[in-house]
Amino acid sequence: MNIAEAILKYLREVGVDHIFGIPAGIIGPIYDALIDVDMKPIITKNEAGAAYMAARYASTSGKLAVCAGAGAVGVGNMMNGIADAMRAKAPLLIITGYVNRWQIGKGAIQEMDAQDIVRPITKYSNTVMNEADVLAELDKAVRIALTPPFGPVHISIPIDVQRMEAPNVLPEAPNLADLQVVRSNPKELEDAVSLLNEAEQGIIMVGRGGRAVAEEIMQLSERLQWPIITTPSAKGIIPGDFPLNLGNYGFSSTDAAMEYVTTSQSSCILILGTSLGEASTCNFNDMLVEGRKVIHVDRDAREIGKVFKTDAPVLADLKDALPYFLEHAKPSSASYKKPLPLNEAYERNHTGLSLRLFLEKLSKVMPNDTRYVCDIGEFTNFVLKYLEIPAGGDFEINLNYGAMGSAMAGGPGLYLADSSRPVAVIAGDGSFFMNGTEVLTAKEYELPVIYFIINNAMLSYVDRGQKFLYNRTMPDYKQDRISIADMMRIAGIPSMSVSHLEDMDDIPGFVRERVGPCIIEVNTDGSEPAPILDRLKALKHK
Fold first, then answer.
1. Mean pLDDT within 352-381
2. Which residues in 269-308 are b (16+ Cβ under 10 Å) and which e?
3. How far apart, in whole angstroms, are the C-alpha atoms of residue 411 and residue 416?
4. Dihedral angle at the C-alpha atoms of 141, 147, 150, 153, nearest 10 degrees?
5. Which of 415, 477, 491, 403 is nearest to 446 (CA)?
6. What is the model's pTM?
């Protein structure tokens, strides 16, 4: 057994079942060893797609994902996906190859020091020159990736080291339960409950960290009769039809969420599992916390108090904190009734298909348990404000890093992490042109991902933003309309077009029992005003 095979056998013991990437000469022994180890390679069209795919696999499942490629051009292409994983706190291991040790410093093909390139966007990065250290370094990196807060790690291994004989005994796979313990402070929990019980009205703000405790959050909301607002990254964690869910707050808030934050008499806000970044706070606007006692619960100490002054900081896992709150918080005798609809009435102030109306209808024609993966573009604002995720559904976005094309590749990663439910990607034509070739990866592996491509034949976010910020724009942001549906049909991908709302009635039959991916092109003209002022104001010079 050589070291490459030993690496894979150790990862198999950790629970890894896929490796994402593109083979290359200096990582060749790893890919050769896949033939002898029960682990499936997912060969993508670009290393960037592999890293995005692995990041989405990890961020939604909480399982370790692995991405393997060359240490020079390969890791260069992976950079955005690694950074995406870092901002999403996704447990991702990147393994890169390096030239033979005797070649280092002589100008060998694909010689580049990947260790220092990725160090700023990983929790740990190291090049292993001594064959005796490889498995210990691998074990160390994996443990770091899987210790809260999760994140990407990287090891680089010269090709001659990969080929060398491995020791007979592999490191023992980490006990995840031991690694992931975040010990809470009873006094912090007591102080938080005291504030909960003192407040007559309050708000519960749910971030991505609430994914595993949605039921407990809803129970607490009902007990306190405090409405819930969700950050963009937490959209879908609480079902849209939950009676106390006011929907998205921050980047493209629902009107109901914004109204409650700005006008309610609530004297306390309970913040659960969010870093309170720009996208979650309307550009760090303190109207969220002004005049309110702030309780912030997170398992990452770096996030608490970073943005707003916190009256009751609680370093804890929500799986521990929520049961404590449910046991000790006093039930309210009040009764909160959320306003319906959550957004002001639609006004036809544009030409062409309404993206708002399309999204408001989308969850009615798609299966209730669909897991939506949202890409980045002007359409994202519409999705966050108007798409309702029903009970059983889910939603995934990494707005904090904001990489166009990330969901085009991320969708297949989501399906590989959980194939029990449909996966639907919502992306724009700009995102498609960046990473659309990963649709072919989904085709080759028969992954039935449904791609909704919003095609307005322009970089509308850029165009509208330039007009807002500088009172002018340029024609180069628009392009000749290209039928993405026609392009994909040539590649053997089933495709349909939606140009009118009535066309959506054909979607249920079209997506039913697909073996591989399909494309639904949504043709708009980009004239519908988007709810984008928060982002544009953040870019405006103060």
1. 96
2. bbbbbbbbbbbbbbbebeebbeebbbbbbbbbeebbeebb
3. 9
4. -10
5. 415
6. 0.94
